[in-house]
Amino acid sequence: MLLKVDYSVIIPVYNEAEVLQSSYERLTEVLQKLKANYELLFVNDGSKDGTKAQLDQIEKQDTNVKVLHFSRNFGHQLAITAGVDYASGEVVIVIDADLQDPPELIPEMIQKWQEGYDVVYAKRLARKGESSFKKMSASLFYRLLDKISEIPIPVDTGDFRLMDKKVCEQLRLLGEKNPFVRGQVSWIGFRQTEITYIRDERLSGETKYPLKKMVKLSLDGITSFSYLPLKLANYLGSLTLGIGFLYFFILLIRWTFTDHQISGMNGIAILLLVLFGSCFLLLGIIGEYLARLFEDIKVRPRYIIDEANGFTSGARKKEKLS
Ligand code: UDP
Ligand code: MG
């Protein structure tokens, strides 16, 4: 008989062998207290350390645990996406594996859900143990994105959130290849609210979000939810073209009405620099969008699951969704 799952907790995991046992224990402690059916759905995003073995061990001992192993590292956002695809709870909660998001906030989120909210996101009031570069760049990025996006996206909010089943059903339909999950959830709508918290230090190990992944995430966020960069290309293009014409007319007038000899070398150099500079910039911006369009045109699966363990007990077993 299939058991109805009340709460699904999705935990994306990449090389977290050091913290896995502690986060499993802390999550279990919190969820046991809720006296409801739950599943802990770990998505192993192609870890290369002992994460896989540890997860399989935990899954064998605990029927509430389900594990997806990706065939390689597909990235945090796709790990969350796979979790959402496979989750079967009435309510789905996404939380990091490194205990930076305290599991103890889950009951507070559920409380809000019981009050009738469909999405409860956790907003960071402060972040402990992170470099000032990370704090500053994140803060700037959230504010910029909120300003330029077509829809409001809450600032200082990561992926630690609760979502009602109906939100997840919509998320599954979106099918974007480079998903920016927090933006997608804002875009979906329904009744959304926030709770606030202080983000803890990572329990152990290093961040799995190096600069390269942070840049990819911000570009996904911006290109998925804002057309400003494309419009910027227009503004910049028009401006430089305008300057070019003006310059040409000034020279023409000087040449016609005065006997002023024009030394064009400096002017030409500046003009070339401005024009080439802006052309390259525009091409770069268009390239970002094109790359994403190209991704969407390709009918590749978004992620590949190597193994799905623990799905026979409890919740419905799903075949490959990717
Ligand atoms: N993560 C992932 N795939 C990746 C990078 C990270 O699944 O390619 C997971 C990671 O294990 C953690 C969460 O995403 O559970 C957030 O990553 P991390 O804590 O390293 O990011 P930070 O908190 O430093 O921004
Ligand atoms: Mg972290």
From TrEMBL:
Main localisation: membrane
Cross-referenced InterPro entries: Glyco_trans_2-like, Glycosyltransferase_2, Nucleotide-diphossugar_trans
Regions crossing the membrane: 232-255, 267-291
Domain Glycosyltransferase 2-like per the UniProt entry, residue ranges: 8-171
Gene Ontology cellular component annotations, sorted alphabetically: plasma membrane
Membrane topology: Multi-pass membrane protein
Keywords attached to this entry: Cell membrane, Coiled coil, Glycosyltransferase, Membrane, Transferase, Transmembrane, Transmembrane helix
Gene3D superfamilies: Spore Coat Polysaccharide Biosynthesis Protein SpsA, Chain A
Chain coiled-coil ranges: 17-44
MF terms in GO: glycosyltransferase activity
Keyword match GTP-binding: no
Subcellular location: Cell membrane
The organism's place on the tree of life at top rank: Bacteria
Pfam family, one: Glycos_transf_2
The family this protein is said to belong to: Belongs to the glycosyltransferase 2 family. GtrB subfamily.
Designated name of the protein: Glycosyl transferase group 2
Organism: Listeria aquatica FSL S10-1188
